[in-house]
């Protein structure tokens, strides 16, 4: 999108240029003007699609120029940046049809959200608006990596959605190995090191492709900490990922660090994975307490009990009572299928389609995508070669 920037502030100009060029499609600052008067006196021969207007230094007598500016560029979208609320100016801007007003200093996320709205309104992008689903292990070995990777594959295969899995383990991430024998050429830390290149095509080129619509971004591999990974990088990665994938599945691991926390903040649902055993329940409780203290809404936390066996001493109801949260899904204990899959690095749905654990993953796909049972029965049966009557 070609943009005109109106500002005297060269730092702000550089900041917006950097943020804009990281977008897909990029926002290009093709011209700049010093202020409102300069902008209306030196009109662009080819009208810009976007005008980014820093209103923090508008002189009192200049406010009326806002209407003139918008009349000159009737088809442009406007973003107004203000340092403090200038009521007179804001009212004029609103009357002139300028809808996006952002507070300075610039909050990058707010800028990108405004750009997303503008692009959709202008028909520039067909965003997927992907959902972020996190899986987090309450205790090591609960099965978060196994479930997140295999669930990602199942979503892609059964619901035919475009899925990205991001391995957020700070160290020793192994998610790719669960579903692939390919060695990742790029990792999360490599992407952070080249964050200015981030767009849909770059992200895609960094993945291990397990299926045409399922890619995995390998965990950071940077033992010497040469890359300065920042939480803001996560914002950029998820923003681009949401535009290009229907679902972004996160394998968070047990350690929550600044990077994974930023990802969790933005997750649409968090699935703590635990087994029906006291140590898991204890750790699960700690985790849920952390989420509560972070102010995460309770309905965003969706418990999954893995390796569930009926008839044990502990019941699901005991766990729900202890955690004060509902279990949304259980995955049966299926040692042979799970171990075979993990050892061979082949998704369990591909390796043992009719196994109990594969069926449970299909149910979870149904739950998450909220497909109607009858509809998905057809889908499931088509895949598993069963007739409706069975
Ligand atoms: N439903 C299941 N039934 C049987 N074994 C399972 C099941 N889910 C996971 N496993 C096994 O548990 C092991 C640990 O799982 P993993 O996903 O690595 O745990 P985490 O990532 O939570 O530390 C895996 O090797 C896998 O074989
Ligand atoms: Mg793991």
TrEMBL record:
PROSITE patterns: RESPONSE_REGULATORY
GO cellular component terms attached to this protein's record: cytoplasmic side of plasma membrane; cytosol
GO biological process, one term: negative regulation of cell division
SUPFAM superfamilies, sorted: CheY-like, P-loop containing nucleoside triphosphate hydrolases
Xref: Gene3D superfamilies: 3.40.50.2300, P-loop containing nucleotide triphosphate hydrolases
Record has Disulfide bond as a keyword: no
Membrane spanning residue stretches: none
InterPro entries, per the entry: AAA_dom, CheY-like_superfamily, P-loop_NTPase, ParA/MinD_ATPase, Sig_transdc_resp-reg_receiver
Domain of life: Bacteria
Sites bearing 4-aspartylphosphate, chain numbering: 54
Alphabetic keyword roster: ATP-binding, Nucleotide-binding, Phosphoprotein
PANTHER family for this protein: SEPTUM SITE-DETERMINING PROTEIN MIND HOMOLOG, CHLOROPLASTIC, SEPTUM SITE-DETERMINING PROTEIN MIND HOMOLOG, CHLOROPLASTIC-RELATED
Protein name: AAA family ATPase
Organism the protein comes from: Rugamonas brunnea
Lineage of origin: Bacteria, Pseudomonadati, Pseudomonadota, Betaproteobacteria, Burkholderiales
């Amino acid at each position: 999108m070609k943009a005109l920037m109106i500002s005297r502030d060269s730092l702000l100009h550089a900041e917006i240029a950097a943020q804009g060029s990281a977008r897909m499609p990029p926002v290009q600052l093709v011209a700049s003007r010093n202020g409102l008067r300069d902008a209306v006196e030196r009109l662009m021969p080819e009208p810009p699609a976007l005008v980014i207007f820093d209103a923090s230094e508008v002189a009192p007598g200049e406010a009326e120029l806002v209407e003139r500016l918008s009349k000159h560029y009737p088809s442009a979208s406007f973003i107004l940046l203000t340092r403090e609320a200038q009521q007179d100016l804001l009212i004029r801007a609103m009357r002139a049809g300028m809808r996006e007003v952002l507070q300075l200093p610039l909050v990058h996320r707010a800028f990108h959200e405004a750009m997303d709205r503008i692009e959709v309104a202008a028909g520039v992008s067909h965003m997927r608006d992907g959902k972020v689903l996190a899986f987090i292990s309450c205790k090591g070995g609960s099965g978060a990596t196994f479930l997140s990777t295999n669930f990602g594959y199942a979503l892609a295969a059964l619901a035919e959605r475009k899925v990205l899995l991001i391995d957020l383990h700070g160290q020793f991430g192994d998610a790719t190995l669960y579903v692939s024998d390919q060695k990742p050429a790029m990792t999360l830390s490599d992407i952070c090191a080249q964050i200015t290149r981030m767009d849909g095509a770059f992200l895609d080129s960094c993945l291990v492709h397990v299926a045409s619509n399922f890619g995995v971004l390998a965990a950071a591999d940077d033992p010497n900490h040469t890359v300065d990974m920042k939480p803001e990088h996560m914002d950029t990665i998820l923003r681009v990922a949401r535009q290009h994938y229907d679902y972004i599945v996160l394998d968070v691991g047990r350690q929550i660090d600044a990077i994974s926390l930023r990802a969790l903040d933005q997750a649409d649902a968090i699935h703590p994975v635990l087994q029906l055993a006291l140590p898991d329940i204890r750790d699960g409780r700690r985790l849920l307490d952390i989420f509560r203290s972070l102010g995460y809404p309770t309905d965003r936390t969706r418990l999954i009990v893995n390796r569930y066996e009926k008839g044990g001493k502990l019941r699901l109801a005991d766990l729900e009572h202890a955690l004060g949260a509902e279990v949304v899904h259980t995955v049966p204990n299926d040692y042979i299928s799970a171990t075979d899959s993990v050892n061979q690095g082949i998704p369990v749905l591909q390796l043992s389609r009719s196994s109990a654990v594969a069926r449970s993953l299909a149910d979870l796909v149904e739950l998450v995508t909220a497909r109607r049972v009858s509809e998905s029965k057809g889908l499931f049966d088509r895949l598993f070669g069963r007739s409706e009557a069975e």
